[in-house]
Amino acid sequence: MKSNKLKNFLFMNIGCVFLSVGVYFFKIPNGFATGGVTGIGTVLGRLSPITPAVWILILNITLLLLGFLFLERQNLIKTMYCSMFYSALTYVFELFIPISNPLTNQPLLELVYAVLLTAIGSAMIFNSGSSSGGTDIAALILKKYTKLDVGKALLVVDFFVAASSIFVFNMKVGLFSLLGLFAKAFLVDSVIESLNTCKYFIVITTKRDEISQYIMENLHHGVTVNGVVGEYTKDQKEMLHTVCKRAEAIRLKKKIKEIDSGAFIIVTTSSEIIGRGFRSV
């Protein structure tokens, strides 16, 4: 339990760092308004004397206060931490590493980094059971008090934020912003799935006890066993079912072959395993 909490806390912090770096060094200098609070802050920063980092901080604080008024406070603690940490970190970058122009003269390259870093950061935060706040809080409030399709409503808002950069900046920046918005929408889900990837093993063997013992004692995972009969040979064997982390899969395959060179192994990939030893709901 402590190990999982520490891992989640570490993931949240690393995710916030990725998010801040992507926003400050790649989104803001180029005017990439790909939706959300960062997109709104980027646009407002161009239209007012207040900098984008300060706008992001103001908007996140405002939405957090609304969250405390309308949502259960217990569920907002981690979101509040992530929201304030990444907003404050962006502001610290602005104070100590001031930049007014893009890092390169390659906007497509910078868009790739802007989308990639923020998508990875957001995915790590979501995967830790939290969020970076912002429009996520607005979504929860809308979901609680209205019958709107929240996902579609937020996508429409993000679309208009991204499209507004056409008028605030220029056509090129606006088109890049829209491209970044749609790319991030697909990338976040892909990153979350890759972070949760596990391996499901089906092993048909005559060495049930040795393989089960290794899985339980060395990998600390459970095993489900049922008897099977090969229709062609009529041999009676045991079928073992187990799941493990991606990093453990290579060790397990190698060990099974050491114990029973004739074992028949089927390995499939699962994007998520929920249960003891893996993820809670």
Word description of this protein:
A hairpin with a 6-residue loop joins strand 2 (224-229) and strand 3. The radius of gyration is 24 Å and the shape is elongated. It is of the alpha+beta class. It is 65% helix and 11% strand. The relative contact order is 0.12. The protein has helices spanning 2-30, 36-47, 52-70, 77-96, 107-127, 135-145, 150-168, 171-195, 208-219, 246-259, and strands at 198-205, 224-229, 236-245, 264-270.
What descriptors fit this protein?
281 residues; alpha+beta; Alpha-Beta Plaits; 2 domains; four-stranded antiparallel beta sheet; 4 strands; 65% helix; 11% strand; elongated
In summary, what is this structure?
The chain is an alpha+beta fold and 281 residues long.
Total of domains: 2
Overall mean pLDDT score? 85
The end-to-end distance, rounded to whole angstroms, is: 15 Å
Order of helices and strands: HHHHHHHHEHEEHE
Helix content: 55-70%
Q: In terms of per-residue confidence, which ranges show pLDDT below 50 for 5 or more consecutive residues?
A: none
> Strand-residue fraction?
5-15%
Helix count, DSSP H or I runs of 4 or more residues: 10
Q: What would you call the structural class?
A: alpha+beta
- Rg measurement, Å: 24 Å
The description of the largest β-sheet is:
4 strands, antiparallel
Number of E-state strands? 4
